Write a sequence for this structure.
């Protein structure tokens, strides 16, 4: 069956009552088949006999639908070979969606396979074909977070595995940054490397190759994976246990014998040990693998000694160490011994050469950190490093480790400018939680992957008190407004999102005769159950050339209500339209209210991927990736961003620009706007208390009054009472919580209090960031009964 036959079958299905998840299967296979047909058009005859393109879906569908699938797809999709062609490899990404990417020798994605139904949902609105593997994984993880597979209220794990290529273009460190950029601090990553045989064995068991490799790794490290069998709990449980197990390091000693450095260490009887790396460094007193490389690799885990015969220079002094190698790219570095490699000239009997005194090791400075609370933020600052070997500052945070450092505890921010010596953090920044205390530290990075951690300070992230929300009103059941155009050989439709708890789905309706089509009278060409999916596209070949069609959206609600929206008319052209150009956007900016505010023109293009907000102090025309980025926005409708002035260097000029990313790796850098940061951040407006007065009248009415608070961070008044002087919230109960700053009085009845008792009343003012300011009290004696 040719590809055009598949399209005809798909067109037939559009007029039948086929479920949306079944249509996803057809559309995804058709789109991926189209890519391969174009790529191999010249060599089609040759490729037909050995084609390895295959996309495997493990979605349960009704038996009748499964039969249709079998009839339609058997002539087109064939089982892949057991090994990839030279230079090709596979990556698997398991979150709970399980996705497999096939890449070429340059780690460019060639095809995508969805391994479960969650993966089909995940991939339906993104396209990774043609992307580099790092960008593809970042796109997948970001979409997983958008759809809720990665969420702040649970532990999240991303398992990435590579099969069939010994050295890919990304490392575990690269992938950790990619996942952090896409998911913030809400997901942890494990990266494994396996063979094509591992992948083949996993598929024979009906498992994800990545999960099977993780289980194999777990067993080799003494962890039983069979006790974790609940979706992402399986991945997360195994990874968590692997991360928490201890990896013993060798205890190293050394001396010089017979003209060679000889190292020895204790035997490690730990499960999962695969060998050792012998490490030598002239200037790092604590060398370790992989940061300092290795001069020898030992694959026998029973090894306890090594004679150094190469990889070092005679007469030079080195720090020698041994790193134990465990499965899963885990390394445990032992202690270091400092020895001079002997010169080996001819010697007279009985004469012992006197070694020259060794060069003292180079010292690397740490940076001392301090911090304080400013409103609802924590302000961190640290000492500037002026060394020529400086590479960057890693700002580290840990809730449990009192001596956090990079890379052990990761990093919440990374600066490569040694003049950048401050950072403001707050609730939500890099996953930090309000009301929780963290240890903060700065690890200075030097050339040669040298890391020097400084002191730590313990600070509590301010926790804003939630404001009571009014009861939500039931929103009206509305129609959706549609718009559309013809672009890139397709009819492209979009509409506004419906946010209603009774929402059931969108019916995309078309007609050649009815200028206001609706469902069910005019049928439908597409049914979408995801409220967040507000666009659809259809090939021009699905319609009659030269004819006018009317398009509309009918919104379905669970109680049976249907709401038909407006209609638009589009005339199908006789020939294909030229492809819409990929353009840059124009940025503007200003400084106000303590923030840098940026805005730019919206990009409306089928291949839009995202906006990279770029800033530079030195490049007057900054662009991504050369100048990095300070924010990544994937919603085309979001055309503004703001940043705290305190995140930039005071008195410095910055250049801001937007680089637009398109599918296929295309990037378009726009104009730049320059803004000079004021010399100091805007001083905090003081947060004050409110003074209260009161009296009781002859009718037993208590009249309380207090002065009005005018502050941008005002949240509310807590009217507090007690039989003891100086009551305050939250230590004492309150009578009322008032969020209107202009409401400054309250009348109470003495009958609500104990007769003949004296009560003290006071106002505690609440501000954003959890700040509470109790005021004076007023004493009121209640009348006798």
């Amino acid at each position: 069956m040719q590809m055009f036959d598949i399209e005809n079958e798909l067109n037939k299905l559009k007029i039948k009552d086929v479920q949306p998840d079944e249509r996803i299967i057809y559309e995804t296979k058709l789109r991926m088949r189209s890519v391969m047909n174009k790529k191999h058009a010249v060599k089609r005859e040759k490729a037909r006999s050995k084609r390895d393109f295959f996309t495997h879906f493990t979605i349960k569908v009704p038996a009748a639908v499964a039969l249709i699938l079998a009839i339609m797809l058997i002539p087109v999709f064939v089982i892949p070979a057991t090994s990839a062609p030279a230079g090709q490899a596979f990556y698997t990404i398991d979150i709970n969606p399980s996705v497999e990417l096939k890449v070429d020798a340059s780690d460019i994605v060639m095809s995508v396979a969805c391994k479960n139904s969650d993966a089909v949902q995940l991939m339906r609105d993104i396209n990774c074909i043609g992307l580099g593997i790092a960008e593809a994984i970042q796109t997948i993880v970001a979409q997983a977070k958008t759809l809720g597979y990665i969420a702040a209220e649970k532990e999240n794990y991303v398992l990435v595995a590579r099969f069939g290529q010994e050295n890919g273009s990304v490392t575990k460190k690269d992938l950790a940054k990619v996942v952090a950029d896409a998911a913030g601090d809400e997901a942890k990553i494990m990266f494994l490397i396996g063979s094509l045989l591992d992948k083949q064995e996993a598929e024979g068991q009906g498992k994800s190759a990545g999960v099977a490799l993780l289980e194999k790794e777990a067993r080799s490290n003494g962890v039983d994976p069979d006790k974790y069998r609940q979706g992402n709990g399986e991945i997360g449980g195994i990874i968590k246990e692997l991360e928490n197990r201890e990896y013993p390091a060798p205890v190293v000693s050394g001396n010089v014998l017979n003209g060679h450095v000889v190292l020895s260490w204790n035997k490690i009887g730990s499960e999962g040990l695969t060998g050792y790396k012998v490490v030598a460094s002239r200037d790092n007193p604590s060398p370790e693998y992989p940061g300092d490389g290795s001069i020898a690799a030992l694959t026998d885990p029973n090894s306890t000694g090594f004679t150094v015969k190469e990889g070092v220079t005679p007469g030079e002094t080195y720090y020698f160490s041994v790193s134990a190698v465990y499965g899963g790219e885990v390394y445990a570095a032992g202690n270091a011994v400092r020895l001079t490699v002997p010169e080996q000239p001819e010697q007279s009997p009985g004469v012992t050469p006197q070694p020259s005194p060794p060069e003292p090791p180079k010292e690397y400075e740490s940076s001392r950190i301090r911090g304080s609370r400013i409103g609802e933020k924590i302000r961190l600052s640290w000492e500037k490093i002026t060394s020529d070997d400086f590479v960057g500052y890693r700002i580290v945070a840990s809730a449990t480790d009192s001596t956090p450092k990079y890379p052990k505890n990761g990093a919440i921010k990374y600066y490569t400018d040694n003049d950048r010596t401050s950072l403001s953090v707050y609730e939500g920044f890099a996953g930090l939680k309000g009301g929780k205390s963290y240890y903060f530290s700065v690890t200075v990075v030097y050339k040669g992957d040298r890391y020097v951690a400084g002191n730590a300070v313990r600070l509590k992230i301010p926790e804003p008190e939630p404001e009571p929300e009014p009861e939500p009103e039931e929103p009206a059941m509305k129609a959706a407004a549609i718009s559309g155009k013809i672009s890139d050989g397709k009819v492209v439709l979009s509409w506004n999102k419906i946010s209603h708890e009774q929402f059931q789905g969108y019916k995309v309706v078309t007609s050649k005769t009815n200028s206001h089509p609706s469902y069910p009278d005019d049928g439908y060409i597409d049914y979408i159950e995801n409220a967040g999916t507000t666009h659809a596209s259809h090939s021009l070949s699905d319609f009659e050339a030269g004819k006018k069609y009317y398009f509309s959206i009918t919104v379905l609600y669970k109680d049976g209500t249907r709401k038909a929206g407006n209609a638009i008319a589009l005339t199908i052209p006789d020939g294909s339209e030229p492809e819409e150009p990929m353009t840059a956007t124009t940025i503007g900016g200003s400084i106000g209210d303590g923030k840098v505010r940026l805005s730019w023109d919206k990009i409306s293009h089928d291949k839009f991927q995202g906006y990279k907000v770029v800033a530079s102090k030195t490049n007057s025309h900054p662009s991504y990736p050369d100048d990095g980025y300070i924010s990544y926005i994937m919603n085309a409708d979001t055309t503004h961003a703001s940043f705290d002035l305190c995140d930039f260097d005071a008195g410095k000029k910055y250049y801001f620009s937007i680089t637009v990313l398109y599918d296929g790796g295309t990037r378009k850098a726009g104009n730049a706007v320059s803004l000079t940061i004021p010399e100091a951040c805007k001083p905090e407006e003081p947060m004050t208390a409110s003074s209260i007065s009161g009296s009781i009248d002859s009718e037993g009415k208590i009249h309380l009054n207090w002065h009005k608070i005018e502050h941008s961070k005002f949240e509310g008044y807590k009217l507090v009472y007690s039989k003891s002087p100086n009551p305050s919230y939250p230590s004492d109960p309150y009578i009322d919580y008032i969020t209107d700053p202009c409401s400054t009085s309250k009348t109470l009845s003495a009958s609500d209090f104990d007769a003949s008792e004296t009560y003290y009343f006071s106002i505690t003012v609440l501000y954003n960031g959890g700040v509470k300011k109790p005021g004076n009290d007023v004493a009121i004696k209640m009348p006798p009964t």
Remarks:
- The first helix runs from residue 3 to 14.
- The first strand starts at residue 89 and ends at 94.
- Residues 1-10, 12-21, 31-84 have pLDDT under 50 and may be disordered.
